[in-house]
Amino acid sequence: MNAEPARPIPSDPAPLRPVTLGVQDVIVEKRADGSMLLRSPQVLGPYPAKITERLVYWAKHAPDRALFAQRDATGAWRTVTYAQALQQARAIGEALLTRNLSAERPIAILSGNDIEHALLALGALYAGIPHAPISPAYSLVSNDLARLRSIFELITPGLVFAADGNAFGRAIQSVVPADVDVVLTRNPTQGRAAIPFDKLGVTPTAAIDAAHDAVGPDTIAKFLFTSGSTGVPKCVINTQRMWCANQVMLQHSLPYFAEEPPVIVDWAPWHHTAGGNHNVGLVLHNGGTFYIDYGKPLPGAIEETVRNLREIAPTWYFNVPKGFEALLPYLRSDEQLRKNFFSRVKMLWFAGAALAQHVFDEIQELAVQACGERILFSTGFGSTETAPEALARTWPTENAANMGLPTAGMELKLVPNEGKLEARVRGPNITPGYWRQPEYTAQAFDEEGFYKLGDAFKFADPNDPKQGLLFDGRTAENFKLATGTWVHVGPLRAQFVDAFAPYVRDVVIAGEGCDDIAVLVFPHIDACQALCPDLPADAAPERVVEDARVCAHFTMLLEKMARTSTGSSTKICRALLMAEPPSMDKGEMTDKGSINQRAVLRDRAALVDEVYADAPSPRVIRI
After folding, report:
1. Do 393 and 266 share a structural domain?
2. 277 lies in the same domain as 383
3. Least confident range of 119-128, 225-234, 275-284, 576-585
4. Domain end residue (candidates: 215, 230, 258)
5. 3-state secondary structure of 611
6. What is residue 554's predicted lDDT score, i.e. its pLDDT?
7. In a domain, 89, yes or no
8. In 3D, which of 93, 87, 92 has the Cα closest to residue 56?
9. Residues 352 and 428 placed together within one structural domain of the fold
10. I want to staple 110 with a disulfide (CB 3.0 to 4.6 A). Which of 34, 51, 162, 617 is the partner?
């Protein structure tokens, strides 16, 4: 996260759009061993025994309100109301009960966000059968299907769903056992029997009602897989208690959801906790409407998001930092988009990675241009194991690194660890562990039952804890130089990305056991090519990153950054620009775009050797 100090707030900033927020307060208990316990003064309110209680509630109180909407082949919005969703969930749940499914034989969902995915998940939740949304990239992008195969070996699914039998045919034929039922929305896979999704549901009987009555707080709702940003993905048990408690925690932080059911336009994948738990949950719990966005924060895909946001004005908007960055050029140039997007949104929310400070600042400037008001740009912090919200920031700040304070019902323990404060959490939203992975479960919790996040925090204001906590890097990524000086990777990485914007997509910090710090850079090829206007548009990435003008510009920026360093632990002396993007199959990148620092350093060890060679190659930038 960006560790730069907060910039001073102007004396006459534009007004902040009114929004009802939770309290900004914290109780701090200091212990004799130097650790601290932080908790909210708010008492967590009652929460449902199961998330489908909210589906039943809204089907009764707002039956004709759209729960989900997605574009059909003609571009029109196809909707499913709360009443329709409940009816179909019961019919699908009844059909699932006849197939001997359970936690031992759950439902595996291979494809991404769509209405059929949502209805199948609701049917499974209603029947008390766990489902496991799996990254579509493991089926569609991976060359060897190794991650998908290992997931199937771990969870032994009893039913598999995919939207398109053609697109997912290779994965189905290669990985899904012959005795496992396959459900497809369209395009049967050649040589494999499948159940059409529209034929899956059956007339509900007393059996589905009895099954729903039996679902309780400890029933497993779903299995979610960690992104693998720091290792091999693990299978996180998500109970009904976790999900339901976390939604009430979220409502304590953002009570305006109870006043105004949220309308969201969202692409975040449902196999991630942010998309599938946080975003789907806040809509379902609060009776909102979820417009499924098929855009992505990628060239050639962000345009669909822009199209949707020109048409649908959200009241709450979520994106990953790269998504906000990808939207910026369109918000700058498209007045219709800008006015519609900011017309009724009460809050902008980022999560999943560090938000560059320049993106944070410019989004606010564009909001003022569009509507004369600033929009609260906020965030929280959590993980797949926390369902996900553990911290939330409910007040405006100029520092994008401020993650907020513990939510109601959550205990945060800060433990001194090599000059940092390592974060651990305990509460009703914490996973009981990892499915069929007892060794991971044993390692994840301390002696008091706190889940070890593996992240560090520091106080925004050491004299006033209620000003929130700044993300201070992942403890697992930090390392020592040959001098014994610790390098804190997270803040340094964020500082580098900010200093080199817009020429860098991401960076990996190297130097363990060395005399100084080096970086392996994943450059923004288009931005770098703009430094060389005479290069042909189709110039190979290698030619761009090795161009003398690009190297000279990076040298200048590296020298400028070095002048602000405070010592060897923050001074980057060497850099190498990589033309080859991070590989998902090698574990260098997760499907949400996060970089696995350790995997890159492992798989590109030859580049690290090249950077630190006594006679480095001409493409190594040094100061």
Report:
1. yes
2. yes
3. 225-234
4. 215
5. helix
6. 97
7. yes
8. 87
9. yes
10. 162
| 347 three-class SS | strand
pLDDT at 415 over 60: yes
Taking the alpha carbons at both ends of the chain, their separation in whole angstroms is: 25
H-helix or E-strand containing 71? strand 66-71
CA-to-CA distance for 256 and 19, rounded, in angstroms? 7
Give mean pLDDT, residues 480-504: 87
The residue range of the domain holding 614 is 479-622
Please name which of 219, 237, 235, 239 lies closest in space to residue 227, comparing C-alpha atoms.
235
Cα gap 367→284, rounded to integer Å:
28
pLDDT band at 477 (very low <50, low <70, confident <90, very high): confident
Domain end among 195, 215, 235? 215
CA distance 129 to 50: 12
Across the chain, what does the average pLDDT equal? 93
- Identify whether residues 400 and 549 lie together within a single domain: no
How confident is the model over 502-536, as pLDDT tens digits?
A: 999 999 999 988 999 999 999 999 999 999 999 99
pLDDT at residue 6, rounded to an integer: 37
414 contacts 440 by C-beta, under 8 angstroms = no
What does each C-alpha distance from 295 to 132, 166, 424 come to in angstroms? 23, 21, 35
pLDDT for the residue 355: 80
Chain centre to alpha carbon of residue 588: 17
C-beta of residue 427 within 8 angstroms of C-beta of residue 241 = no
Report how far residue 568's alpha carbon sits from residue 51's, in angstroms, rounded to the nearest whole number.
Answer: 51
What average pLDDT does range 181-198 have in this prediction?
96
Alpha helix ranges (H) inside 391-436: none
Same domain, 97 and 42: no
**Peptide bond connecting 388 to the previous residue in cis, omega within 30 degrees of 0:** yes
Residue 246's alpha-carbon distances to 57, 117, 280, 285, 410, in angstroms, are 18, 22, 12, 10, 10
Q: How far is 180 from 192, CA to CA, in rounded Å? A: 11
Give Cβ neighbours of residue 196 (< 8 Å, ≥ 6 apart): 183, 184, 185
What is the C-alpha separation between 369 and 88, in angstroms, rounded?
44
Q: The domain that contains 86 carries what CATH number?
A: 3.40.50.980
Answer whether 238's CB lies under 8 Å from 277's CB: yes
Q: Where are the beta strands (DSSP E) in 439-582?
A: 451-459, 469-474, 479-480, 486-487, 504-510, 517-523, 572-577
Question: What pLDDT is attached to residue 10?
Answer: 46
> 336-365 burial by CB neighbour count: b if 16+ within 10 A, else e?
ebbebbbeebbbbbbbbbbbbbbbbebbbe
Q: Which residues pair with 66 in a beta bridge?
A: 81
What pLDDT was estimated at residue 4? 35
> CA torsion 352→358→364→368, rounded to 10°?
-160
Give me the phi and psi of 154, to 5 degrees please: -75, -45
Q: Mean of the pLDDT values across residues 314-343?
A: 95
Cα 176 off chain centre by: 27
**What are the residues facing 265 on neighbouring strands?**
291
In this predicted structure, the answer to whether residue 320 has a pLDDT above a threshold of 70 is: yes
pLDDT in tens, 559-600: 999 999 888 889 999 999 999 999 877 778 766 567 888 889
pTM for the model: 0.84
Residue 292 is inside which H or E element, if any?
Answer: strand 289-292
- Token look-up 């997931």 returns 151
